[in-house]
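ok so i was messing around last nite and threw this chain in just to see what happens. nothing serious, just curious
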Amino acid sequence: MYEALKKGFALPIDLTTATLFYAAPSPAPPGRVIGSIGPTTSYRMDAFTPEFIEHGLKGMIGKGGRSPKVVQAIRRYKAVYFGAIGGIAALTARCVKNVELVAYEDLGPEAIRKLTVIDLPLVVINDSKGNDLYLSEQGRWRILSK
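result:
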């Protein structure tokens, strides 16, 4: 998708209405809309993320911290990064009520899917004011642990 953006091609999703969930679900078992789905490390996407944010992306879901360039883009363009809970992929799957394959089916688990979710547990990690929960809590923990 990044290559399409760089070349000026139409994207398979409207970034201005999308929240990207960095995840690769397992196949859906019988009677379910999706298999286990948990967040993947967001840092791997950081080389591409500022440009997506610049083109209208407002929300991302993943796990782990983001690079200073991504945090700066989040603040500048008024976006948000949510942390999802790792290690509970089977429980997270229960929050997914509908799945629609959108693009790049050949990528298997990394294909783009539109997920409809209810009660997905998330925490705001980076907000549009420049707050970084990971950094602020590390500092707080250091003070408490002295």
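not much to say yet. The radius of gyration is 16 Å.
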